[in-house]
C-alpha cells in the first residue's frame, strides 16, 4: 500500500472519530431534562391561550351555534324553543313587509353612506398630505368625531340639531329654505343619518393618510415630467398605489354600516320612525327580539344579515384582483 493511500485511510479514521465525539457531546444528546423543559414551555403556551379559547368558544362560537338553532324555532324566552323548521325564513321574505322595508332602507344607507364617507375621508387625507404646517392639529380635529360619533350623547345632540326649530332648521330658514325638522320628516331623516355617518370619517381618513405617505414621490415627479396634470396623476398614480387601502376601508366601512344601531335608536326614540325610515335591520331585529319577544325570528334575521355581509365580503375579495394593485405583483 502506498504512503498516499495510508494517509487517506488514517485521515478518514480520524474524521470519523471526531464526528462520533461531536455526536456524543452533551448538547447533542436527547436528555430527559431537555424534553421536560420543552413540554413545560408548550404547556405554558397553551395555558396562556386558555382564557382566549374560553372567551372564543364561550362568547362567540357557542352563542352563534345556539342562535342558529333558535332561528329554526319559535322562542319567546318564557317558554322552551319549539322547532318550526324554515318558517321564520319563509315568513321573513313572504309575509313581513316591515322586514323588506328595513332591508331596503339599510341597503340605501350602506350603498350611499359608505362611498360618500370614503370620498370625504380621501379628500381630507389628500389635503393634509400636502400641508405641513398645522397638519397634526387638523389631523386630530378631523379624527376626534370618530372617537365620539357612535356615542349616545352625540346621537342626542344630532337629534336636537336636526329637529324642529333646531340650529340646522333655523339656519336654513334664514336662507329662505323652510324644510322643517329633518328628524320628523320621512324624506329627510335618512339623509340626516347618512350625514352623521359621514361626519365620523376620522379613522378612515387617518388610514388613507398613512397610505398616501407610503407612495413614492418619484412616481409623481415622473408623471409630471411626462406632462400629466393633477387629475391624471391622481388617476394613474394615487388610486392604483392606494387601492389596497381603499379595499381595506371599503370592506370595514360596509361591515360597519350594516351594524348601525345606536344612532337610529336614539334619533327615532326606538320606534324606527318616522314612517319606518330609520328602522334599520339591526333596530328591527332588536324590536322583534326584545320588544316583541320573538327571539327565534330575531335570530333568523341576524343570520340573514350575517349571510348578506359574508356574501358582500366574498364578492369584494373575489373581485379585488381586477382593481387592487399590490407592490411587486405581476399581472
UniProtKB/TrEMBL annotation:
Single GO biological process annotation from the record: transmembrane transport
Classification via Pfam families: BPD_transp_1
Main location class: membrane
One annotated Gene Ontology cellular component of this protein: plasma membrane
InterPro entries: ABC_transporter_permease, MetI-like, MetI-like_sf
UniProt entry tagged with the keyword Acyltransferase: no
Superkingdom assignment: Bacteria
UniProt name for this protein: Sugar ABC transporter permease
Membrane topology annotation: Multi-pass membrane protein
Location in or out of the cell: Cell membrane
Amino acid at each position: 500500500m502506498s504512503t498516499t493511500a495510508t494517509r487517506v485511510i488514517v485521515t478518514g479514521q480520524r474524521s470519523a472519530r471526531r464526528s462520533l465525539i461531536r455526536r456524543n457531546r452533551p448538547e447533542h444528546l436527547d436528555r430527559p431534562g431537555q424534553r421536560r423543559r420543552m413540554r413545560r414551555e408548550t404547556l405554558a403556551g397553551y395555558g396562556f391561550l386558555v382564557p382566549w379559547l374560553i372567551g372564543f368558544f364561550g362568547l362567540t362560537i357557542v352563542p352563534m351555534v345556539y342562535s342558529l338553532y333558535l332561528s329554526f324555532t319559535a322562542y319567546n324566552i318564557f317558554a322552551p324553543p319549539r322547532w318550526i323548521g324554515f318558517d321564520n325564513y319563509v315568513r321573513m321574505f313572504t309575509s313581513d313587509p316591515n322586514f323588506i322595508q328595513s332591508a331596503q332602507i339599510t341597503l340605501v344607507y350602506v350603498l350611499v353612506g359608505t362611498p360618500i364617507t370614503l370620498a370625504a375621508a380621501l379628500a381630507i387625507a389628500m389635503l393634509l398630505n400636502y400641508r405641513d404646517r398645522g397638519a397634526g392639529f387638523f389631523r386630530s380635529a378631523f379624527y376626534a368625531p370618530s372617537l365620539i360619533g357612535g356615542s349616545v350623547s352625540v346621537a342626542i345632540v344630532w337629534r336636537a340639531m336636526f329637529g324642529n326649530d333646531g340650529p340646522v332648521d333655523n339656519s336654513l330658514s334664514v336662507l329662505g329654505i323652510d324644510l322643517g325638522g329633518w328628524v320628523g320628516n320621512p324624506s329627510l331623516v335618512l339623509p340626516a343619518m347618512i350625514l352623521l355617518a359621514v361626519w365620523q370619517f376620522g379613522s378612515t381618513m387617518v388610514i388613507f393618510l398613512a397610505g398616501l405617505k407610503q407612495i413614492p414621490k418619484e412616481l409623481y415627479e415622473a408623471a409630471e415630467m411626462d406632462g400629466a396634470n393633477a387629475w391624471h396623476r391622481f388617476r394613474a398614480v394615487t388610486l392604483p398605489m392606494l387601492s389596497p387601502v381603499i379595499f381595506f376601508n371599503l370592506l370595514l366601512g360596509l361591515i360597519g354600516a350594516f351594524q348601525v344601531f345606536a344612532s337610529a335608536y336614539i334619533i327615532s326614540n326606538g320606534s324606527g320612525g318616522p314612517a319606518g325610515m330609520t328602522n334599520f335591520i339591526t333596530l328591527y331585529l332588536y324590536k322583534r327580539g326584545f320588544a316583541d319577544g320573538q327571539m327565534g325570528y330575531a335570530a333568523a334575521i341576524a343570520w340573514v344579515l350575517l349571510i348578506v355581509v359574508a356574501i358582500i365580503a366574498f364578492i369584494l375579495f373575489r373581485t379585488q384582483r381586477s382593481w387592487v394593485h399590490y407592490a411587486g405583483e405581476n399581472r
